[in-house]
Amino acid sequence: MLVLVYRKCSTCQKALKWLEEHKIFFEERAIVDENPTYEELKEWYGKSGLPLKKFFNTSGMLYKQMNLKDKLPEMTEDEQLRLLATDGMLVKRPLVIGEDFVLTGFREKEWEEKIRG
């Protein structure tokens, strides 16, 4: 399982603590240092079954500065994926890539169901 995080993010810190407490093995990747590629995002989005908007860090400063709330509805999925691939700060985190699931953000109940099964 791959977990993309931003270590300074309090939600990511909670998520990592949760994984460690539940003794769940995972590979950690710094989302800013190693931004997800267009190809990865396209694959993960397809696998997730989630709306593409769930992959955006809508509470982030960059999202707000770029006025994406108004711009995203007019962009194609391909344009949105390409935009996400430009900066890890645009991507909702933590981003968890499992064998048969993709999770955006940390919601303990959802993680309990998907990760611990």
From TrEMBL:
Domain of life assignment: Bacteria
InterPro entries per record: Arsenate_reductase-like, Thioredoxin-like_sf, Tscrpt_reg_Spx/MgsR
SUPFAM superfamilies linked to this entry: Thioredoxin-like
One Pfam family, short name: ArsC
Database matches in PANTHER family: ARSENATE REDUCTASE, PROTEIN YFFB
Family to which the UniProt record says this protein belongs: Belongs to the ArsC family.
Name of protein: Arsenate reductase family protein
Protein species of origin: Blautia intestinihominis
